[in-house]
Write a structure and sequence with these properties.
OB fold (Dihydrolipoamide Acetyltransferase, E2P), 21 strands, Elongation Factor Tu (Ef-tu), domain 3, about 375 residues, 6-stranded antiparallel β-barrel, 4-stranded antiparallel beta sheet, 4 helices, rod-shaped, alpha+beta, conserved putative lor/sdh protein from methanococcus maripaludis s2 fold
């Protein structure tokens, strides 16, 4: 019984002693200053670029709308979207539907010309016989000959006019038929919005006319996009542009900025200025009209400059500072030093003076 009490007493004393020791250790550690350890960053010599990105689309420089020179009904379609076409190659054919009043007028003109021509032939035959018998002068004969020739020509003109009204073409000029709709350029057909049986009308003062096809030269492409007003003042014609096209992953294309709109357009509360850049693409790559693209424009460039991560810089008013490492043992020590900085790419910033490549600076806390 005494032994058990003795053991309990010893255990209590040991526990009290342990608590006392732990308390002293805790208070000692609490009283020690906290040592903050920082990441150490070395400046590097590198190239910096400040860029802006414009979003837009790739499209042909010019899209030509092929329109008919005559109104009628589409009777044949020879081409479809996606096919190549040469200049003067036939895309479609139009069947003329004559207007009743015009048709009646043309038929009446033919009948009248036939009557006049018949009378002229009769008169000329009579005059010719008299001339051969030397009963009239040569002058009268020649006048009659001119008259019959004019009557013949008027009859042929009336017949041709009737053919044009009915068919849109004359037999003598079949190769120049306005019923055959031809491409005006070499290129790729982007769209054929008509079908056989559709009515079409020619372009006139009051109507733009029906579009038979849209043709474009796909070897002359441009990027068309928008730049925010905060950066439009820093770009100019002739600047190089790097294009990335969403549909062509892993590929970049060179372009040259050739147009900046003098007038902005408000979009979502911000003024946007249209830009155009001429695109250079190898023949082996097929680029379709309307592909979405991003254009990266280099606004400023620094070649082989000393640079630091922007997070290591302290900005104070118009001044900039870094904390230069002066000692690392037994603990890190730093010196606050003013420096001059240059351009920034948003991640790194150029150091113009105040720091050497061999020195190290304070970064983030570890």
């Amino acid at each position: 019984m005494k032994t058990r009490k003795k053991i309990v007493r010893i255990g209590v004393l040991v526990a009290v002693a342990a608590i006392i020791v732990w308390t002293f250790v805790f208070l000692y550690r609490k009283s020690q200053p906290v040592v903050t350890v920082y990441e150490i960053v070395s400046p590097e010599v590198t190239d910096l670029e400040k860029t802006t990105v414009a979003t837009g689309k790739v499209e042909p420089r010019d899209e030509v709308l092929i329109k008919p020179q005559i109104s009628g009904i589409i009777s044949e379609v020879y081409k479809e979207a996606g096919q190549s076409v040469k200049q003067n190659e036939v895309i479609a054919k139009v069947k003329v539907i004559p207007e009743l009043g015009t048709l009646n007028s043309a038929e009446s003109r033919v009948r009248l010309a036939e009557i006049n021509a018949g009378q002229a032939e009769t008169d000329f035959a009579r005059v010719k016989k008299l001339y051969e018998e030397q009963l009239i002068s040569r002058e009268e004969y020649e006048k009659s000959e001119v008259g019959v020739k004019q009557a013949r020509e008027e009859l042929q003109t009336a017949k041709d006019n009737l053919e044009i009204v009915k068919e849109g073409i004359t037999k003598s000029n079949a190769s120049f038929s306005s019923t055959l709709i031809r491409s005006t350029i070499d290129g790729l057909i982007l769209d054929v919005p008509i079908k056989v049986g559709n009515s079409v009308i020619m372009s006139n003062t009051f109507n733009d006319g029906t579009t038979i096809a849209t043709v474009a030269n796909m070897n002359d492409l441009i990027f068309r996009g928008n730049v925010d007003e905060t950066e439009v003042g820093r770009i100019h014609e002739g600047m190089p542009v790097k294009l990335t096209i969403g549909a062509l992953q892993g590929m970049t294309f060179e372009a040259n900025l050739e147009y900046i709109s003098p007038k902005g357009v408000e979009e979502n509360g911000a003024n946007q200025f249209e830009i155009k850049a001429a695109l250079s693409a190898p023949d082996s790559v097929q680029i379709r009209s309307g592909y979405s693209a991003n254009a990266e424009i280099v606004l400023e460039r620094a070649h082989q400059t000393l640079a630091l991560p922007e997070r290591t810089i302290e900005f104070s008013g118009d001044s900039t500072f870094v904390y230069v490492l002066t000692d690392s043992l037994p603990e890190q020590k730093f010196e606050r030093r003013p420096i001059q900085v240059g351009m920034s790419d948003g991640i790194r910033i150029a150091v113009k003076s105040g720091l050497s490549a061999q020195e190290k600076v304070r970064g983030s806390k570890k």
